[in-house]
Design brief:
This protein is mostly beta strands. It is about 15% helix and about 45% strand. It is elongated and about 45 Å long. The protein starts with a helix and ends with a strand.
Length: about 120
């Protein structure tokens, strides 16, 4: 009887450990710290499916001498594969440094957030 209880507990906790994973950012385009020609969009690829209502990102042009940081008008949508967050600026990105700040919630309800930078030449 005790062995059955132990095996049941191991099975339950083993499954619980697997479900406790957080979505991980696998890749970004443009790449972190890259210098690129004006991109038409920013693509963030995650390890798990995302919940669109709770997964967002912003693009901000970094402050420069004589100019404050400026949030860029954009839209963020989860792609049809469910694992990519695509951020599309509403206008052309001019030369400068940009910071992409994101927060996502995976289908197992775990929230993660982060940011990275790239530059446009």
């Amino acid at each position: 009887m005790h062995i059955k209880a132990i095996l049941t507990a191991v099975a339950i906790f083993g499954i619980g450990g697997t479900a406790a994973a957080h979505p991980k950012l696998l890749s970004v385009t443009p790449a972190a710290n890259a210098v690129v020609v004006t991109p038409s969009h920013v693509d963030l690829r995650f390890s798990e499916r995302l919940v669109p209502a709770f997964s967002k990102a912003d693009v901000t042009m970094a402050a420069m001498p004589g100019m404050a940081a400026m949030k860029i008008a954009s839209s963020a949508t989860v792609a049809s594969d469910g694992k990519r967050l695509v951020v599309t600026p509403k206008g052309r990105l001019v030369a400068g440094k940009y910071i992409v700040s994101w927060h996502v919630v995976s289908t197992d309800t775990h929230k993660v957030a982060g940011s990275y930078a790239f530059s446009v030449k």
